Hints:
The chain is an all-alpha fold. The chain contains 6 helices and no strands.
Amino acid sequence: MNExxxxxxxxxxxxxxxxxxxxxxxxxxxTNITIHWICVPAILWTVIALLWVVPVPVMVxxxxxxxxxxxxxxxxxxxRLSRALAFAMLxxxxxxGLVTEALYRALGATQLMWLAIAVxxxxxxxxxxxxxxxxxKPSFLTDLAYLxxxxxxxxxxxxxxxxxxx
Length: 166
């Protein structure tokens, strides 16, 4: 572990461990955790899909450019925390991007947008129900960076289950 992973003050936990640990503190109830396993990926997809349908000038690129840019920026955030976790998230982004491209071709921009909005609303309702059951407010209300940590928390749990260190 390099020295950059140790913050001033001597806390030996890596920054990624602190983020994921803090997120876990707000997600202990099994029902809330199950809801998050469904709703967090759904919300991540909706953000990608909604960015996908934002018009792109033809001379600049094609549909999906803004989503790809957001994924690159998120990847850079994750890369700062953990190389393994960043590449796992990149795989998630690729899969969600492929799904979104297929839906974009099948449905068109307008229908994809409405589908994404509907999923977004339902998934956020689910999230808030989960937090009501949990009895704790959503983590992102304390720091917006937790909107990026939620998907990484799920991916990190999957990585641990298959024996991959993050």
